Amino acid sequence: MDITIHASFLPHDDPDAALAFYRDTLGFEVRNDVGYEGMRWITVGPAGQPGTNIVLHPPAADPGITEDERRTIAEMMAKGTYASIVLATSDVDGTFERLQASDAEVVQEPVDQPYGVRDCAFRDPAGNMVRIQQLKGQ
């Protein structure tokens, strides 16, 4: 089988703030920016990896979600417990320093975890957890 991960989805509640974080702070390329009925879907991804994408989407856009579910999603996003992503870098400490110098919300400074990785964590503007791990062997 030849299967790859093409896209992951993270919610946003402010498309301009999400764009600033993923494009300007993390340095991702903007691959698509689509508006529809007052909502925006923004596709970003790391330079040099055109097949790997993160779609930043409005969480209320799914027509199958009830109003109660929309409220629950908004509450979980506000608490930072709704969505997360794990990224990897060859220099987690250097990446942490660059992100800390921005206005990104630090959740965890770089640390060697008992499960064998060195990582740090931030929250994006929508409250999504962004963990960044050191690539193995580097």
UniProtKB/TrEMBL annotation:
It holds the Pfam family Glyoxalase. InterPro entries: Glyas_Bleomycin-R_OHBP_Dase, Glyas_Fos-R_dOase_dom, VOC_core. CDD domains: VOC_like. Residues 4-135 form the VOC domain. PANTHER family: GLYOXALASE/BLEOMYCIN RESISTANCE PROTEIN/DIOXYGENASE (PTHR36437), GLYOXALASE_BLEOMYCIN RESISTANCE PROTEIN_DIOXYGENASE (PTHR36437:SF2). This is Glyoxalase/bleomycin resistance protein. The lineage of its organism: Bacteria, Bacillati, Actinomycetota, Actinomycetes, Kitasatosporales.
